[in-house]
Amino acid sequence: MEKLLIQGGKALHGTVPISGAKNSALKLMCASLLSPEPLTLNNLPRLADITTLIDLLNHMGVTVTIAGSKGGTKVTGRSLTFDAGTISDTVAPYDIVRKMRASILVLGPLVARAGEAIVSLPGGCAIGNRPIDLHLKALAALGADIDIEQGYVRASAPQGLTGGKIRFPFVSVGATENALMAATLAKGTTVIENAAREPEIADLAACLTAMGAKIEGAGHETITVEGVDQLHGATHTVMPDRVEAGSYGVAALMTRGNLLLEGARAEDMQATLDALTEAGGIVEIEEDGVRVKSNGHIKGFNLVTQPFPGFATDMQAQFMALACVAEGASVITEAIFENRFMHVPELCRLGADITVTGSSATIRGVSALKGAPVMATDLRASMGLALAGLVATGETSVNRLYHLDRGYERLEEKLRQVGAVVDRVPA
Ligand code: EPZ
Predict the structure, then answer these.
(1) What is the distance in A from the centroid of ligand 1 to the CA of 158?
(2) Which of 10, 84, 204, 385 matches a 20 to 30 Å C-alpha distance to 103?
(3) Domains (ranges, CATH) in the chain?
(4) Are residues 12 and 255 in contact, defined by beta-carbon separation less than 8 angstroms?
């Protein structure tokens, strides 16, 4: 195990190259299951979650190679080709799914292409129960028979799926993605209502369209899919990671620095940029990215997490860290996940003043945080703690670094390049 050692107090200045989006890349990789022809993905981030999904796809018979190479076993490149010519196994085993919930995204593509899928139930996780009922209802609406046996979902449609109407009672990113992928090969028309509008949905739809799918309305509330008999090979470039970009934007403001988030797209992260501005940051859209800088002050602010285009739950912990050092009080309400405040006691160990009442946290800014060892509980919570460490006096160690490695590519390297004093050391 490793931990991150941070000596706080350095203002960050320079350029941070933003990686491909984890939460898009994972779904795009699952989409490769829909076609017997290879899918090449460019701009894949090098992250633990990507490796976990490669393991799962390998298990199903998908060969993964560095794009342009003739094969080999080293599959950590930025451009990879996923060849699902033959699906040899339609089981997603517990041992892999438990490591990463996004594994559930193989369900739709598998049942659509192979007529069956047996996928381990992911179970709850640190940030909440996270059921998958909407994923299952969506596939049932397309004609799949669904059973749950011994902790596994068994979905089957031996004669293929049939288009249908899916109306989600509330917005789910993953359920929208599973439904969208499954519908591409269903017979007839599928209409998905109250669909998630996150930019990752539009990225997935663009890739599926390049593979021959017929999709209208991705990125809007209603998506219409005209099923086709077969999808073909394609090449697609993963969109930039709006959560990584937003996290470094918070780092710029919090450390009273100035960072160019290279490659970030403002339209994907407007709510984050608005929140940074409300907190006193200066945001400038430049040709090659988004610049965030400080005017020397951080103001208190109020936020409620919401589905896109609202403020993203994946940015909540990072803004909580920012609020800890703001002038005045802030209120942050978590409205997506029921248990996503686990960073609060850890931030308090650094000297933060936070009171939680139900799903809202009131944060009264303090003049300084003080370094201490802290324990990460999930990916974004870990980033919140790392950000707090960047401004705390003395040394902060963030334990359980593996959480950060799931979603932030070369974190300590990127931070060091803009002036942070950060090291990865054995725990
Ligand atoms: C995606 O998770 C992201 N993960 C999450 O990012 C992100 O926090 C979340 O969307 C919300 O934006 C990936 O893209 C891999 P949901 P997902 O289905 O799809 C409930 C990170 O840190 N729900 O939109 O699982 C659910 O419990 C991760 O990168 C049901 O009740 O999220 C939650 O309360 C963490 N039944 C709400 O809906 C269902 O069948 C929204 O979840 C599905 C979801």
Answers:
(1) 29
(2) 385
(3) 2-18+240-426 (3.65.10.10), 22-237 (3.65.10.10)
(4) yes
